[in-house]
UniProtKB/TrEMBL annotation:
Residues 29-82 form the Acetyl-coenzyme A synthetase N-terminal domain. It is an enzyme of class 6 (ligase). Residues 89-483 form the AMP-dependent synthetase/ligase domain. This is Acetyl-coenzyme A synthetase. It comes from Mycetocola zhadangensis. ATP binds at residues 392-394, 416-421, 505, 520, 531. Its cofactor is Mg(2+). GO terms for cellular component: cytosol. Catalyzes the conversion of acetate into acetyl-CoA (AcCoA), an essential intermediate at the junction of anabolic and catabolic pathways. AcsA undergoes a two-step reaction. In the first half reaction, AcsA combines acetate with ATP to form acetyl-adenylate (AcAMP) intermediate. In the second half reaction, it can then transfer the acetyl group from AcAMP to the sulfhydryl group of CoA, forming the product AcCoA.
């Protein structure tokens, strides 16, 4: 067993909220009672916190499961709810973003300014032919224009597909094709690790003229933000963002769209080689992201300074940098760069500078700071912090305790929030000021959310037992499907139990009935809080001319949670050629980087002669994981050839 998970099973410390926190907390135990009394009415009330142009009369339509419709006959404009509404309420001067560039350049943007920029950008986009339902790909660094671009798309009722800046040209191409995007918004480059990392060349490579075969190019324009000042090639379809913005009309009135109008597609790794385009719509998504952001972070919009460190290329950036916080009129920090540039205390320096009150990050970041030691954060004044959050992977109790002591001064409650790209918003978390917290446990469902832990037959496991995490009732921000593939949606999440959503995570209920997440139960890895698919990396590896076969596993890693470890067999015909290569592992690692993106590069690549397979030919990843984690290899009786593991273990330990 993964040693971090093992620790989780022996943890029994508890931390009640302080009286001082309780006396000012937004959340109360009554929220659970309200939700229990009438779940749908509870969500309808949360939805009514938004501005609806046409109020909805029906809360949930579940007549065609698993395809849900929430607030279906209502209409709203998502961008209006995140922007104009606050300006009209007299809060236009409130800072929406304190943006900090990696080089130390900074810019504060108020709600009035952000609204004005989004209006202009909406005019630019509609001038380029973008309207309701059109797909726009966004490939940008963490700069205010990224938020402006997303909200401008939303304002027009169009659909954005944000592609993480670390993905390669091939990944951009497949995402643009899958969604038939009409427009790409990118930048020349952005700052990362002290230098400009170019972005536009990857878009250019993705959009290079197609041959006669293959689909028709759907992209008509590329809009380019100037940020890195790096030299870029230029074609007829390219336009500079700043030039178009300067020409655009400043006025733009937001039109209402149906609650179920698609808002965005976000690709995430599944168990097959092809990423899934997770589809989210408007009213239900905004309701749950705003509600959870408010109660889980005890949000006081007049006084809090909130910082979520996630990149907007991931769901956490969508729901807890853009939509939830902006719908609530939050003041945020937005940081362009990496945590250790130009020095390892960069994050803590930013917290001191902006007096951040609420900080939301991933366990992998906490563990890498732990490794560097408490001396670094101790150099900065972190006394403004009053609440800490964690997301993306199970947080081991050691990291939780360090976070509490060193960053939270033993006073700030920690909320460990479990959710997924598919769930759109938080599903399991403590409520600060209400829940007695436990290091390593995400604990309890959000009010209005129905979660269970069940065995393979779908039967509740009972306290003290482990099983599979499921959601038993539809929820407002649930995915509405996989873009263009309703069958895959049904198959992946619903076929296993019929009437319950299968999350793909293992979980355990403790004696109090609290939920402890135990990691993925499928072939999805979680590396530094990022989801990667074993199949996707395997298919990238076999695309290399040297590779005959490849198997990839996620092995426990002290810092990143899991690390990608690959086992490859070289083609007979390539043995000679590959033998001439000095470092074949390095060649294959960088090949994966080019095919998918640097985050997918394996930590280790082992060249082996054989892979362990069952008699039906299925690769036994469990055994490879044993090898990768340096353990004795477990039960091999179902292998077609029982000697193969000895050979592999020998080959790996010879390295
Ligand atoms: C994992 C990120 C334990 C889980 C928001 C899930 C977690 C996957 C937690 C989704 C947590 C996320 N504790 N595990 N607090 N949060 N996970 O789609 O395995 O990038 O299925 O969404 O991350 O990853 P995704």
């Amino acid at each position: 067993m993964n040693p971090q998970i093992d620790n989780l099973l022996h943890e029994n410390r508890k931390f009640p909220p302080s009286d001082a926190f309780v006396s000012q907390a937004l959340a109360t135990a009554a929220l659970y009672d309200e939700a229990k009394a009438d779940r749908l009415e509870f969500w309808a009330n949360q939805a009514r916190e938004l501005h609806w142009d046409t109020p909805f009369t029906q809360t949930l339509d579940w007549s065609n499961p698993p395809f849900a419709k929430w607030f279906d006959d209502g209409t709203l404009n998502v961008a209006y709810n995140c922007l104009d509404r606050h300006v009209e309420a007299g809060n236009g001067d409130r800072v929406a973003f304190h943006w900090e560039g990696e080089q130390g350049d900074s810019r504060s943007v108020t709600y009035a300014e952000l609204t004005a920029e989004v209006k202009r950008a909406a005019n630019v986009l509609s001038g380029l032919g973008i309207g309701q339902g059109d797909r726009v790909a966004i490939y940008l660094p963490m700069i205010p224009e990224a938020v402006v671009a997303m909200l401008a798309v939303a304002r027009l009722g169009a659909v954005h597909s944000v592609i993480f800046g670390g993905f390669s040209a091939d990944s951009i191409r497949s995402r643009v094709d899958d969604a038939s995007a009409k427009l790409v918004i990118t930048a020349d480059g952005g700052w990362r690790k002290g230098k400009v990392s170019a972005l536009k060349p990857a878009v250019d490579a993705a959009l290079e003229a197609r041959g006669d075969l293959g689909p028709q190019e759907t992209v008509t324009n590329v809009l380019v933000v100037k940020r890195g000042e790096n030299q870029v090639d230029w074609t007829d379809r390219d336009l500079w963002w700043h030039e178009e913005m300067a020409k655009a009309d400043a006025e733009h009135e937001a039109q209402p769209f149906p609650a179920e109008n698609p808002l965005f597609i976000l690709y995430t790794s599944g168990t097959t080689g092809k990423p899934k385009g997770i589809l989210h719509t408007s009213g239900g998504y905004l309701t749950q992201s705003a509600f959870t952001h408010k109660v889980v972070f005890d949000l006081k919009p007049e006084s809090d300074v909130y910082w979520c460190t996630a990149d907007i290329g991931w769901i956490t950036g969508h729901s807890y940098v853009v939509y939830g916080p902006l719908a609530n009129g939050t003041t945020q920090v937005l940081y362009e760069g990496t945590p250790d540039t130009p020095h390892p205390g960069r994050w803590w320096e930013i917290i001191e500078k902006y007096k951040v009150t609420t900080f939301y990050t991933a366990p992998t970041a906490i563990r890498s700071f732990m490794k560097l030691g408490r001396k670094i954060p101790k150099k900065f004044d972190l006394s403004s912090i009053r609440l800490l959050g964690s997301v993306g992977e199970p947080i081991n109790p050691e990291a939780w305790m360090w976070y509490r002591k060193v960053i939270g001064a033993k006073a700030a409650p920690i909320v460990d929030t479990w959710w997924q790209t598919e769930t759109g918003a938080m599903m399991i978390s403590a409520l600060p000021g209400v829940t007695e917290t436990k290091p390593g446990s995400a604990q309890v469902p959000i009010p209005g959310i129905s979660i269970d832990v069940v065995d393979d037959d779908g039967v509740h496991v009972g306290t003290g037992n482990g099983g599979l995490l499921v959601v038993t009732e539809p929820w407002p921000s649930m995915l509405r499907g996989i873009w263009g593939d309703p069958e895959r949606y049904q198959e992946t999440y619903w076929d296993k139990f019929g009437d319950k959503y299968f999350a793909g995570d293992g979980a355990r209920l403790d004696d109090d009935g609290d939920i402890w997440l135990l990691g993925r139960v499928d072939d999805v890895m979680n590396v530094s809080g990022h989801r990667l698919s074993t199949a996707e990396i395997e298919s990238a590896l076999v695309a290399h001319p040297f590779t005959a076969e490849a198997a990839v596993v996620g092995a426990a890693d002290e810092t990143t949670g899991q690390a990608v470890v690959a086992f490859v067999i070289i083609k007979e015909s390539m043995l000679e050629e590959s033998a001439a290569v000095e470092d074949i592992a390095a060649v294959l690692r960088s090949h994966v980087g080019e095919q998918i993106g640097p985050i997918a590069r394996p930590r280790d690549v082992f060249v082996v002669n054989e892979l362990p397979k069952t008699r039906s030919g299925k690769i036994m990843r469990r055994l490879l994981r044993d090898v990768a984690e340096g353990r004795d290899v477990g039960d091999t009786t179902t292998l077609a050839d029982t000697t193969v593991m000895q050979i592999i273990t020998g080959q790996v330990s010879a390295k």
